[in-house]
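Field reference: sequence -> structure
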Amino acid sequence: MNYYSYIDKYGNVTYNEKKETEIDILIYSQLAYLPIDSIDFHNNKKYYLEEIAVNINRDVFLESLIAQRNALKTLDIIKALPRFKEVQVYDYEYVVDDDSQFGAVTFILPNKRIVIAFQGTDNTIAGWKEDAILSYKYPTTSQELAGKYVERIISKFKRAVIICGHSKGGNLALVGSIRTTVLKKMLIKEIYSFDGPGLREKEFDSLSYKMVKSKLHNIIPNESLVGVLFNQENLDVVKSNAKGIMQHAATSWQIDDDKFVRTSKSTLS
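Structure field:
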C-alpha cells in the first residue's frame, strides 16, 4: 500500500472528522512539484484544487520528471474528494536562473491549518546544478528564498504552520525554518523533510538549527541515497517496495492505514 491507498480509504473523510496525518503532509509535498507558474497568484488570489487542475498547463508534463507526473496524477485523483476539495492553494512562487531553481506553495486546509510545501528538483539544468552547490555553499539562492517565503507566509497568517518538502524541497523546508526570526520559529509547528539532504557541518552545529530540530521529522526510505547526504540525525526510516535510488520516489513508500510502515536503515544506505 502506498499513499494512493490512503487516498482511497480516507478521501471521503473530511479534516473536521480526521485531522491531518503524516501521509497528508507527504501528499502536499508531492503537489509542490506541480508547475503552476502559468496561473495568476497575484493580489492574494487563492484557488481550489479543482481550479488548479482545470488551469494547469498539461503540455509541460510531456517532458517532466516522474515526480511532476505523479503530482499531476495525485491532483486529478484528490481534487474533488471531500477531504481535499476545500483545500485552497495560495502564493505559488517559482524562480529559476543560471544556478538555482526554487518552488514553493502554501495550502490552506479546511481546518485552517497552514501547510507550506517546497518543491524538489525539477527537470531544469539549474536545479541539478544547485543540488551540487548545496555541498559547498550556504545559503544557496533557493535557501535564501525559502527563508523569505516562510517569513512572508507566517507574517501573513500569524498562526501555526507545518513546513514540508521532498528531496531538495525537504532541505528547503528545514533551512527555510532555520532562516526565520525567533518569534516566527515559535509558530512553526512541525517540519517534514521527506528524503531531503541534511546540512553542512557549520549549519548543523548552529543555534538556529538547534532551535527547530525538535520539530523536524526526518523521513527516509530504508535504502535512501539522498536523505543520508550531509549531516543528519534522528532519521525516521520507512519501508519502500523499490530498490536503491528508485526508493526516492515517494509512491514506493509503504503505508499501513494512516501511517508509514517503519523499518531499519539498510547497509546500502
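Note: The chain has a mean pLDDT of 94.
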